Amino acid sequence: MTRSFNRIAASALFALAAGAFLPAHAATNDADLANSVQSAISTQLGSDAKDLTVTASNGTVTLHGWAQGPQEDAKARYIASTVPGVTNAYSSVRVFSSDSND
Question: Do strands 88-91 and 60-67 pair parallel, antiparallel, or not at all (unpaired)?
Fold first, then answer.
């Protein structure tokens, strides 16, 4: 019984100590995570991100809105996936069509 308790206690201490090595800027809740992702996308894509919004739920982020093309959508999803705290990044972004019916 004492060995089991010691193992559990050691595991708990290790987990607590490991938490100290998480990035200081990791988001602590869904709203913070969505804001962090939105900021990263806006910073890296500039005006290409003006029609994109972000929602977050338990580490999963979803991009919404419009992109100029599939490359911008892919870039935004990649940027989102690199933000600390993001476990999955999905996109429901629509792409503007450049086809004209002239």
Answer: parallel
| Statement: the pTM of the whole predicted model exceeds 0.85 | no
Tokens of 11: 């595991």
Taking the CA atoms of 67, 68, 70 and 73 in sequence, report the sign of the dihedral they define.
negative
- Report, in angstroms and rounded to the nearest whole number, the Rg of the chain calculated over CA atoms: 19
| Ranges of H-type helices in 1-102 | 2-19, 30-45, 70-81
Q: Position 73: which residue type?
A: D
CB 40 within 8 A of CB 10: no
Distance CA 83, CA 26 (A): 8
The H or E element spanning position 86 is none
Note the residue count of the chain: 102
Residue 42 has pLDDT above 50, yes or no: yes
